[in-house]
Amino acid sequence: MDSDKKGVTKTIGDNFLDNGGSLNDRLSESKNDDTLASKIKGDRITDLKSAIDINLKFLFIRELFNNDAVEYHNTIAKLNDISSVEEMLRVVTEKSEEFAWDEKNEAFVIFSEMVNRKIR
Q1: CA distance 106 to 120
Q2: Contacts of 75 (CB under 8 A, 6+ apart)
Q3: Predicted TM-score (pTM) of this structure
Q4: Residue range 49-88, pLDDT digits in tens
Q5: Which residues contact 45 (CB under 8 A, 6 or more apart)?
Q6: What is the distance between the alpha carbons of residues 51 and 53, in angstroms, rounded to a whole number?
Q7: For the chain, first and last CA: distance in Å?
Q8: Contacts of 102 (CB under 8 A, 6+ apart)
């Protein structure tokens, strides 16, 4: 402990006190949307197969394609070959009806975002 000139004892913790709130509060206030993830999230996808990482692949197979990996791969290949927005939406709608996709399901939301980035 140190004593300042007035005879008041200061602890080490007093040296680090800041009235700006906790470190978490200060970091969240200064957070901007210039992260690599936020930049990549908005980029156009040219190849769905390469854009979908292994974790998402297994999530999609399990949650959207009822564990049918062949159907998943065929669908992704078909979506990659399609050039028109209408055709891509038709394929996604067919698969949605075939597998009874829930639009509130996180896997469906992620899949839809990726397809939308492909058709931009």
Answers
A1: 21
A2: 65, 91, 95
A3: 0.66
A4: 999 999 999 999 999 999 999 999 999 999 999 988 999 9
A5: 51, 114, 117, 118
A6: 6
A7: 63
A8: 108
